[in-house]
Specification:
The protein is built from 15 helices and 21 strands. By secondary structure, the protein is α+β, with helices and mostly antiparallel strands.
C-alpha cells in the first residue's frame, strides 16, 4: 500500500486497472505524499492481468502529456523512449489528388512526441512499489450499503476487498462504469461503435523510407482521403514505423459492430481491397505489413458525471475516444494528476470523499469530454465528411493549424493548484 501520511484509519483507495492513467495516478500519489499536511491514504492497485501490460503500439503525446511526465520527475526516462517530432505533415492519399495539404510545425515551446504504449507503461510502472499491487484481480462487481459505508469489491476469483474510494481505471469496457450507471434509467453508458475500423501494423523504418522517402518516413505523416486516412509515424528511436489505416462507414447514422472480436487479424488482400484507388506508395506501405490486425474503434457517449459518491472513473473508462488528435493518453495522464492532487489535499477527509470527487468531476468531465468530441470531429474533417469543410483545402488547413492549442496548453503544476482551489471552494460551501 502507499501510505501518504502517518496516522490512524487511513483512507483506503482502490484503483481498478493498471493502465497509463492509473499508474500516472499512483506516481502522482507517490510524489504528493511527501506533503506533511496530506491526509493518511492507502492505495492498492488491482490488475486483472498477471503483469502490467498495454495492447496497441504507437501513440502521440502532446505538450500537456509531456508536462505530466516532467511533473512526475520522469522527463529523462520519458525522453529515453520517446521520439520528439513536429506534429504532422498532412497530404492527400488518393491517387487522383495532388500531394500536400498542410504542415503544422510544432511551436518551439511545445513538445510533440510519439512513443510505444508498452514502453511508456514500463516507465510509469517502475516507480510503483510491487507491494501495493495485486495481480490477477479481475473485478466482477462492487457493493456499498450507503455513501457512508465502505465499498466491497468482488473479484472473479471469489475474493473480496474493502475500500473507501473506488477509482475505475478499467478501460472502455469498464465494470466500474457499468455498475455506476446501472441505476440511470434511460441512459446507456456502454461504448458505441463509431463506424471506423483501424488496420494496424509495425514496419522497420528502413522499409518505409524505401517506399515514401526519408523526409516522409522520419516524421509523422497523415494521408487523407474520402472516408479513409492513413497515418504513419516513427517510434522506438526511429527504428520502427507505426502504421494505422483508418476506414469509416458513414452509410448509416448509427453503425453497429458486426459482433466479431474488437481486435482480430485481417488478411492482407482484404485490407488492400479498400485502398486500391489510393496512391502507389500508400498501397505499398500497407502491402509491406506482414500480419495486420483490424480494430473496431469505440467511443463513449458524453457521460453526465465521471464521479458519484465515493466512486470515480478515469481514462478510457470515462472518456474513451477516437485517436485522431493523439490526445487520449494525455487525458488519462491529466486525470491521474488531478485526482491525486485532490485526494492528497489537506481538506480531504474520510467523511467528505463525495465532495472531493465532485471537484474531480468539475475539473475533468468538461475538458476530457471536449477532447473526445473534437477528436471525433477531426475524423470527419480529415476524411472529407464534415459538412462545413468537405474537401476544402483552405478550411482544412485552417483548423489543423490551431485545433491542438487548447489541448496542449495545460500545465500540471498549475492544475494541481487549481484543483485544490476548486476543492476548497466546494468544502467552504458545504
Amino acid at each position: 500500500m502507499i501510505t501518504t501520511a502517518q496516522g490512524p484509519s487511513p483512507i483506503r483507495v482502490a484503483l481498478i486497472g493498471g493502465g497509463l492513467g492509473g499508474l500516472t495516478f499512483a506516481n502522482a500519489l507517490l510524489k504528493l505524499r511527501e506533503e506533511d499536511s496530506s491526509p493518511p491514504l492507502e492505495l492498492t492497485v488491482y490488475e486483472g492481468a498477471r503483469v502490467f501490460s498495454e495492447i496497441g503500439a504507437g501513440i502521440g503525446m502532446g505538450q500537456n502529456a509531456f508536462d505530466v511526465m516532467c511533473y512526475l520527475g520522469l522527463e529523462k526516462e520519458y525522453m529515453a523512449i520517446a521520439d520528439p517530432c513536429e506534429l504532422c505533415q498532412w497530404r492527400y492519399g488518393e491517387a487522383d489528388r495532388p500531394q500536400g495539404v498542410a504542415n503544422k510545425l510544432s511551436d518551439e515551446k511545445l513538445l510533440h512526441s510519439t512513443v510505444h504504449r508498452a514502453d511508456l507503461l514500463d516507465v510509469l510502472a517502475k516507480n510503483v512499489p510491487k507491494e501495493i499491487t495485486e495481480f490477477g484481480k479481475r473485478l466482477v462487481s462492487y457493493s456499498q450499503a450507503d455513501e457512508k459505508s465502505a465499498i466491497t469489491l468482488h473479484f472473479s476469483d471469489g475474493t473480496t476487498r474493502d475500500c473507501d474510494v473506488l477509482v475505475g481505471g478499467d478501460g472502455v469496457k469498464s465494470v466500474v462504469r457499468e455498475q455506476l450507471y446501472a441505476s440511470e434509467k434511460g441512459f446507456d453508458a456502454s461504448p458505441v461503435y463509431t463506424g471506423t475500423t483501424a488496420a494496424r501494423g509495425l514496419l522497420p523504418a528502413s522499409t518505409v523510407a524505401e517506399i515514401v522517402g526519408t523526409e516522409e518516413a522520419t516524421r509523422p505523416q497523415m494521408y487523407l482521403g474520402l472516408d479513409q486516412h492513413l497515418l504513419i509515424f516513427p517510434i522506438q528511436g526511429g527504428k520502427v514505423t507505426n502504421v494505422v489505416a483508418f476506414k469509416t462507414d458513414r452509410s448509416v447514422p448509427n453503425p453497429v459492430w458486426n459482433g466479431g472480436p474488437g481486435v482480430a487479424p485481417i488478411a492482407s488482400e482484404d485490407l488492400l481491397k479498400d485502398w486500391s484507388h489510393w496512391s502507389e506508395k500508400t498501397q505499398s506501405v500497407l502491402k509491406a505489413i506482414k500480419a495486420p490486425s483490424q480494430w473496431a474503434l469505440m467511443e463513449l457517449p458524453d457521460l453526465p458525471y465521471h464521479a458519484k459518491g465515493s466512486v470515480c472513473l478515469m481514462g478510457d473508462a470515462s472518456h474513451a475516444s477516437l485517436p485522431h488528435q493523439g490526445a487520449g493518453a494525455g487525458q488519462a495522464l491529466e486525470d491521474g494528476v488531478v485526482l491525486a492532487a485532490l485526494l492528497t489535499s489537506p481538506l480531504t477527509t474520510a467523511s467528505n470523499i463525495p465532495t472531493t470527487l465532485s471537484a474531480y468531476n468539475t475539473l475533468r468531465r468538461e475538458r476530457s469530454t471536449g477532447v473526445k468530441n473534437t477528436s471525433h470531429e477531426l475524423g470527419d474533417i480529415i476524411e472529407f465528411a464534415h459538412p462545413s469543410y468537405k474537401d476544402d483545402k483552405e478550411k482544412i488547413v485552417g483548423t489543423l493549424k490551431v485545433r491542438y492549442d487548447w489541448i496542449w496548453e495545460w500545465e500540471a503544476e498549475k492544475e494541481v493548484v487549481k484543483a485544490r482551489e476548486v476543492l476548497e471552494d466546494l468544502v467552504n460551501k458545504a
